[in-house]
Amino acid sequence: MYSLLLALIYLAFISLGLPDALLGSAWPTMYPILNVPVSYAGILSMIIAGGTIVSSLNANRLTSKFGTGFLTAISVLMTAISLLGFSVSNSFWMLCLWAIPYGLGAGAVDAALNNFVALHYASRHMSWLHCFWGVGASIGPYIMSYSLAVKNSWESGYSSVGVFQIILTIILMISLPVWKKQAQNKRTSQTGTVKHLKIHEALRIKGVKQVLLAFFAYCALETTTGLWASSYLVLHRGIEAETAAGWASLFYLGITFGRFLNGFVADRFGNRNMIRVGLAIIGIGLIAVILPINLGFVTLVGLVFIGLGCAPIYPCIIHETPSNFGAENSGAIIGIQMASAYTGTTFMPPIFGLLADYTTIAIYPIYLGMLLVLMLIMTERLNRMIASRKMEN
């Protein structure tokens, strides 16, 4: 039963990753048909991000009321209906409408499953969980590419993923007794009750502000790296666009592969040490990217190293939350962490774009380096605060 539930959680995270790259893959075909500017993809992205922030902040309360299994099933269903809605939309305003439940569903399932795994499973499973997200995010563009090439239809790409998630919803509904039994087993082995912390209450807990800033900086760095890598390689390093696009995609494969490897060593070395190792590898990658040499290969390898360094940070920060702040607070704090993460991914890449417009895209590694330093400072401050609090107790 333990393994069955874990398989379902992995499958749910594949489904969470599947739609993430669909819009980017389909938009070059979609926007002329919809007769809107190419920049309107940003509007859809912002609506989805807004929904994820709202649902993340409320995920702990919803989980306590409905249970993780049921909330996951309903969230996946909302996402499925939204994707099917995308597939029948023939105007931009309809896409904006369907983007609302899509964002709400994605944020709730992300926060709920992260907290469930942090409470019930070892650190290696958290790493593999996010590895499976990468699998879904990698498969999504291939589904859309096939739909565009073979069926000449972006709509069928969305409907295919939507149907998959409908099937997953049915599986999750059937498996609800398994979720309930696992939750009951956990409650019998621990003391204390789940707390519904408000944001201002959570911020008063020692270390929460630091972990939120660290999470914000990490997600900002990951998204900015992926979004602007090709442009930096082409415009500043003079690398051919086709080569740049291929190597930029390896940044995401580096994250996925790194999380797969991280699962084998995370429990042995501990979350905090894995975060430190990840930050060090990102630093090495940034040095390779910023080196003023004409060997383009060094820059490309640097991007892969940044991806490998990113791999352990997100899952290890999440998995350490119950240990840092208590199991009774983890649901609320993980929800706030998710909201902080989505804020970083929403606003920091466009801010870099504005800075690059007014200066030069050559500041790309410097911008990433500033985010890396912020992460390092906040994670080490958090570690000292947690150690100090444990000594006081």
UniProtKB/TrEMBL annotation:
It comes from Mobilitalea sibirica. Belongs to the major facilitator superfamily. GO terms for molecular function: transmembrane transporter activity. It is a multi-pass membrane protein. InterPro entries: MFS (IPR011701), MFS_dom (IPR020846), MFS_trans_sf (IPR036259), MFS_Transporter (IPR051788). Residues 5-383 form the Major facilitator superfamily (MFS) profile domain. This is MFS transporter. One of its GO terms (cellular component) is plasma membrane. Keywords: Membrane, Transmembrane, Transmembrane helix, Transport. The keyword Nucleotide-binding does not apply. The chain crosses the membrane at residues 40-59, 66-86, 92-113, 125-144, 156-179, 211-232, 244-261, 273-291, 297-318, 330-352, 358-379. It holds the Pfam family MFS_1.
